[in-house]
Structure formats: structure tokens, C-alpha cells
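A.,

Following up on our hallway conversation. C-alpha cells first:
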């Protein structure tokens, strides 16, 4: 494609040199630059890619997009486009490269601290089962027509080139709708710029990602970016962010609300939350009965959000009721692992204080046995939540095991010590692993144990701690297929670790 064609629908900035040059690929990774590449230099959190411009010129890049003034010797070999925001430029160029695919789709963005994966998947199935052609991009995978595609390790909101490629494939598969999980990082980093969103859905905004956003206000501002240009906004009236997000909407945006506590467009009553959730959706004086295998008040809110979106998109109540009664299990979302030991084993993605609390409270109500909680906190992420989660776990679980969850460059033992700060503010007792015996945890007194190796923690809980009717719930990783130590993605699966533990073994990470 000629550079002139890429730039014809937008004015990125000042161009130095000819636009009559061929662009064979677009890339923001200097290591993947080849002859004819348009390279976008981005100032990242850790690395400023402008320092690699001399290198990519040697690799025969044809165009460079960057935020700094070009050097005269560069302009002898390449065309340079100076922009004020390289991330924004990358998204706009990616959209142009793939033919502006979002213009051919009705795109629905789902954002929020918790629940966005569930809402996105439920809405996908509501549309699909109603006969609509729909694509999905979520933290679990991408779905286009009948194909399921991997989005990569630890990816919820793909980078612009990958995301626009997914949208392009949806257009090629004749999809009418695209449901996208949208993160605060993705919004702040302009990954979804250039996408025309028909609808935006907000689940909630709670304590998370302050390592990146620094303040809660900045976090809310990032989330609000999704809603500034949508035609329909679906907001959780129970969430403290409701008024803030509402104020960002255009006057022409249609607002739909949902709530379990107050007057809203979509409400639910009464709630039966255990083995199968049953409730009536109230819309004015009309009531529609819903049954779902999703459970918990938080999932009642998630279902209301998806129902509101489906009704706005003219999905019939009969189709909604049939779909919600037979939803497939979401990997890593309160996923139960069947076994012959009579232990209730769950894998859940919860990695925030609120999510941890909600799941533990639900499982205490749902089962009569002791509850054993296994979790860690990710390295290089929000450190303020660590003691909060330690305190919540030891207050609600009979036994808590603190372990690894993507330590990255941090020492896992240091992370655990920060979790312990919250646990030590309770009456719970710490048990040293080498001092454990069958007698010192059988009472209902709260205890906690440090086991840094996640595989060892899971096996210890299943093989040593848990008895018939007890609950073992493993938090934080959910569907993910890797664990990060010092920048290296090691093969990992909580479900596989459980299966190994049930056979008497321990899943190990060889580092």
C-alpha cells in the first residue's frame, strides 16, 4: 500500500519526504522490521522506541512515524511522519491498513474492573443463539464465526494491529456484530482508537491497576473514554462510578441502567443464588423469569448488563431465556473440577479484593465444608491491594495459602510478606509448612500458610488439607496458560495443576 493511501483519510501530523512510497507492513517492534516496513516509534513505560530509529533505517524501513523531530540524515533514506501521539497514530494506521473494519460492524465494548469477560461472553452467546453473525475478542480467546483463536498470553485488549486484524477477519466472515472486552490500559494507550463503538457497557470500577494509573480518578477517566462517543451506554447504577460516567455521555447517547439495589431500567428480584440462579427481570411493570448456571449477586448484575444490551439489539425474551438457561462454562470463572474425592474444587480468575470477597462469601453459603483459599498477587502490579486481599481471605476462608501469581521481576516471598501484612491484622494463626500436621487446622479457627511454589500450594491443599465436602478455590490465574518469572512466560495451567494434584503429584515450573 502507498503511504498516501494510508494517510488519505486522516491527518496524523507533519510529513517529511514523499508519500509515494510503498509500505509492505506496519510494525511497532523494531526487531520485526523488514524492507518496506512502516515503523511506529512509541515511548513505552520502560523503553523509548525512538532510540531504535537508526537500527530500523538500516533494516530498510520505508517510513517512520515518531514524536521527535527527524534528523537530516534520516530523511535521506526514509519518509518521516511527526505526530504528537505515536500510540494514537498506530491505531489509526492499523485501522486504515485493514480497511477500517469497524465501519462494517456494530461494535459493542465491554469494560469494567470485574465481570467484563463474563458479560462479553454472555452477550456473544445471546447474539449467536439468536441467529446473529457475531465475533468476540476477550481475555479468554477470540471467536470469529465457528473458529476460536488464541489472543496470546496475558492479553485482554490486544494491541492495535492484532485487534484490527481480528476485526478484519470478522468482516471477512460476514459478521454483523463484534463484542470487544476493553481494558483501561487499552483505552489509555489508544489501542481502540479508530474503532467506531455502537454501544458501551460498564460493569463496575473498583480498586485495581493503580500501579499504572496512579490515582483512582485517572483510572475512572480512562474507563470513561469508551463512553464519550457511543450511541448507547449501559451503566451499573449500583456502582459508585455511575454519576461520573453518566456526565461524560453525549446528549444524543441513549442511557440504559441496571441495578439490584435501586430504581433502574433493568432490575432483578427475587434472587436465588446457589446451584442455579433464578430471578425475574423487572422492566417497568413487566417481569421475565431467568434461570442460569451462573451464580452470585455479581453474576446477577453481569446478566442484567448483557440482557439490557441484548434487548437494545432486539433479541427476543424467549431467545434470551433459552440461552441463559444453557450457557457454556467459562474457563476459569468459578470453574468446578470434578473429582472422586468429594472435594469441591474451583478455579477462578478473581484477582481483586472485591472479587475475592464475593467468591468466598458465595462459596461459604453454597457449601457446608471448610473453605481453603489459594492465591497470590501479581508482581509489578497494584501493591496496595496485597494486604487487603490477605485480610479478606483469612477472615472468610478457614485456611488460606499464599503463593505465586506471575511474580514477574519481584521476589515472590516479598509479595507474600506484603499479603501477610493484612492477614496479621486478624486473629488468624500462621502455620509453618514444616510444622504442619493433621491436628492443627481442623478447627474452625482461621489459619494461613506460605507456599511460594503454586503447584506445591495446590497439591498441599488437595492432598493434605482438604477432606470430603470441603472447598478448595484457586484464585488469580483462571484460564491463563502461563506464569511469568523475570520476563519469561513459563507453561502453566491451574486446571492442569489440580489434575496432577488429584493423581498424587505436584506440577512444577522448571526455571
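Then the amino acids I'd put at each of the 511 positions:
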Amino acid at each position: 500500500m502507498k503511504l498516501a493511501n494510508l494517510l488519505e483519510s486522516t491527518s496524523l501530523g507533519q510529513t517529511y519526504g514523499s508519500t509515494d512510497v510503498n509500505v509492505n507492513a506496519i510494525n511497532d517492534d523494531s526487531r520485526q522490521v523488514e524492507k518496506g516496513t512502516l515503523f511506529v516509534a512509541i515511548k513505552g513505560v520502560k523503553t523509548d522506541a525512538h532510540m531504535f530509529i537508526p537500527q530500523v533505517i538500516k533494516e530498510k524501513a520505508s517510513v517512520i512515524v515518531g514524536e521527535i523531530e527527524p534528523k537530516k540524515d534520516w530523511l535521506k533514506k526514509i519518509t518521516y511522519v511527526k505526530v504528537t501521539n505515536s500510540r494514537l497514530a498506530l491505531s489509526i494506521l492499523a485501522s486504515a491498513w485493514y480497511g477500517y473494519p469497524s465501519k462494517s460492524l456494530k461494535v459493542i465494548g465491554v469494560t469494567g474492573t470485574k465481570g467484563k469477560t463474563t458479560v462479553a461472553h454472555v452477550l456473544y452467546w445471546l447474539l449467536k443463539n439468536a441467529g446473529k453473525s457475531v465475533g468476540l475478542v476477550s481475555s479468554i480467546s477470540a471467536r470469529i464465526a465457528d473458529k476460536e483463536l488464541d489472543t496470546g498470553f496475558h492479553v485482554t485488549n490486544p494491541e492495535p494491529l492484532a485487534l484490527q486484524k481480528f476485526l478484519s477477519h470478522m468482516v471477512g466472515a460476514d459478521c454483523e456484530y463484534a463484542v470487544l472486552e476493553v481494558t483501561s490500559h487499552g483505552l489509555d494507550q489508544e489501542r481502540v482508537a479508530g474503532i467506531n463503538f455502537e454501544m458501551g457497557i460498564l460493569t463496575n470500577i473498583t480498586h485495581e491497576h493503580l500501579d499504572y494509573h496512579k490515582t483512582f480518578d485517572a483510572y475512572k477517566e480512562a474507563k470513561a473514554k469508551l463512553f464519550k462517543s457511543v450511541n448507547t451506554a449501559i451503566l451499573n447504577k449500583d456502582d459508585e462510578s455511575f454519576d461520573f460516567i453518566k456526565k461524560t455521555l453525549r446528549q444524543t447517547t441513549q442511557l440504559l441502567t441496571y441495578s439490584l439495589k435501586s430504581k433502574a431500567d433493568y432490575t432483578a428480584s427475587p434472587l436465588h443464588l446457589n446451584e442455579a440462579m433464578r430471578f425475574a427481570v423487572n422492566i417497568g411493570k413487566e417481569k421475565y423469569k431467568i434461570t442460569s448456571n451462573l451464580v452470585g449477586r455479581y453474576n446477577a448484575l453481569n446478566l442484567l448488563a448483557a440482557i439490557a444490551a441484548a434487548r437494545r439489539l432486539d433479541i427476543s425474551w424467549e431467545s434470551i431465556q433459552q440461552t441463559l438457561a444453557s450457557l457454556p462454562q467459562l474457563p476459569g470463572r468459578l470453574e468446578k473440577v470434578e473429582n472422586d474425592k468429594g472435594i469441591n474444587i474451583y478455579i477462578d480468575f478473581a484477582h481483586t479484593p472485591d472479587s475475592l470477597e464475593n467468591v468466598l462469601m458465595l462459596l461459604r453459603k453454597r457449601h457446608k465444608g471448610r473453605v481453603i483459599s489459594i492465591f497470590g498477587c501479581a508482581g509489578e502490579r497494584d501493591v496496595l491491594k496485597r494486604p487487603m486481599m490477605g485480610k479478606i481471605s483469612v477472615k472468610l476462608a478457614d485456611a488460606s495459602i499464599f503463593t505465586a501469581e506471575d511474580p514477574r521481576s519481584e521476589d515472590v516471598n516479598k509479595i507474600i510478606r506484603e499479603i501477610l501484612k493484612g492477614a496479621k491484622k486478624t486473629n488468624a494463626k500462621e502455620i509453618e509448612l514444616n510444622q504442619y500436621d493433621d491436628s492443627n487446622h481442623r478447627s474452625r479457627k482461621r489459619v494461613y500458610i506460605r507456599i511460594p511454589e503454586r503447584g506445591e500450594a495446590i497439591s498441599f491443599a488437595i492432598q493434605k488439607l482438604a477432606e470430603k465436602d470441603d472447598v478448595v478455590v484457586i484464585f488469580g490465574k483462571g484460564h491463563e496458560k502461563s506464569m511469568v518469572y523475570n520476563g519469561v512466560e513459563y507453561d502453566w495451567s491451574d486446571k492442569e495443576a489440580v489434575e496432577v494434584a488429584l493423581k498424587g503429584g505436584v506440577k512444577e515450573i522448571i526455571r
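The chain has a mean pLDDT of 94. Curious whether your intuition agrees with the design.

B.
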